[in-house]
Q: What sequence folds into this?
């Protein structure tokens, strides 16, 4: 013989605990705790990975952009002892300038301008390893050359 008994759904009201005012406080506390656990789980699920590179610039690279907020990538290099003509990458001359940068390399990058005297250069800025800027405020407008790793400036073909 089989008996069919009605099933009761488990609700906060059916959870055993103290009765009266203490029961309401206890149940309210349980609800708050459950809500906090759900929110914490949601925050963990939407967190960005720690390996996400700033501006999309991979580890070991120097990245120069012709737009603010790491838009319009123009020069990406992993070379640690080389010079690059910024004109070749549309990063020098109006309206093309370095508007943002990321240096994920292990070496500094020095920006240079010509003095008008052959083989004489003037440094106009340095980008340290591990640094970045989403808006340079046109601080590098004079630059026509960038050299990595302390390389002396020269009019390279790179």
A:
């Amino acid at each position: 013989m089989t008996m069919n008994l009605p099933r009761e759904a488990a609700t906060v009201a059916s959870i055993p605990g103290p009765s009266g005012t203490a029961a309401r406080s206890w149940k309210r506390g349980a609800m708050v705790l459950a809500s906090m656990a759900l929110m914490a789980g949601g925050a963990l699920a939407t967190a960005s990975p720690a390996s996400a590179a700033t501006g999309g610039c991979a580890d070991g690279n120097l990245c120069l952009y012709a737009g603010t907020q790491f838009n319009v990538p123009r020069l990406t290099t992993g070379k640690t002892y080389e010079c690059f003509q910024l004109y070749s990458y549309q990063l020098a001359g109006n309206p093309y300038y370095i508007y943002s940068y990321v240096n994920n390399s292990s070496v500094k990058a020095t920006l240079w301008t010509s003095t008008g005297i052959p083989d004489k250069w003037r440094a106009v800025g340095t980008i340290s390893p591990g640094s970045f800027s989403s808006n340079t405020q046109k601080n590098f407008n004079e630059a026509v050359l960038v050299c990595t790793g302390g390389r002396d400036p020269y009019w390279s073909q790179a």
Notes: The two ends are 90 Å apart (CA to CA).
